[in-house]
Amino acid sequence: MATMATPICAFGWKAKEFTLKDGWGNSFRLHDLRGPSGTLVMFICNHCPYVQAIAPRIARDALELQKRGIGVVAVMPNDYRRYPEDSPEHMRAFATEQGFSFPYLVDETQAVARAYGAVCTPDFFGFNREMELHYRGRLDASRMAPVADARRELFEAMMQIAETGHGPAEQTASMGCSIKWREEA
C-alpha cells in the first residue's frame, strides 16, 4: 500500500462530465447528480484502510450535504481485476453496509480518475454550483483511526462553497492509498 497525498486545490478548475455505472449496472451522469448548491465528487474504494476508517463519516456527511442541496457521488477508480476486493459485487456490499445515500460508481477505464487527476483513495473534489473546483482537501484529521472532536473539514468547506461559491483558502491535503492503475498492455 503506497500512501499518497493529494495536490493543492486548483481553484476554479471545471468538473469533467462523465457517465459511469454503479455496482448494480445503473448508469449515472455527473450532470444529473449536480446539486443546486454544489457537488462533491469522491474517489474511494472498498479495500483501502484509509477509506474503511472514514466510511461511516463519509456516509454521515454526504447525507447532511445532500439535505442542503449539495450533490454527492463516489467513484471507484482501481483496477479491480488485480484488486478483486474492489469489484462491483464488493462495491454493492460496501455501499449497503455503509448506508451510502449517493451513487458509488465504477471507473472501468480509469478515464475519469485520469481526467480529474485523482491520485489516491480517498480523494475529494468539492465544486460550487458552476461546477468550479473549490475544495481538494481531507475529510478531517483522521487517518486510519478516528480523531476525537476532529473538525469536519470537508463538510465545513462544502457548506462554505454552498453559501459563498468559494472554498477555504487553507486546505489540508487528503491522504490515502495510491490508485491501483491498470498495467499498460
TrEMBL record:
Q: Which residues form the Thioredoxin domain?
A: 9-160
One of the entry's Gene Ontology molecular-function terms is:
oxidoreductase activity
Q: Which domain of life is it from?
A: Bacteria
Q: Spell out the InterPro entries in the cross-references.
A: AhpC/TSA, PRX-like1, Thioredoxin-like_sf, Thioredoxin_domain
Q: What is this protein called?
A: Thioredoxin family protein
Q: Which species is listed as the source?
A: Candidatus Defluviicoccus seviourii
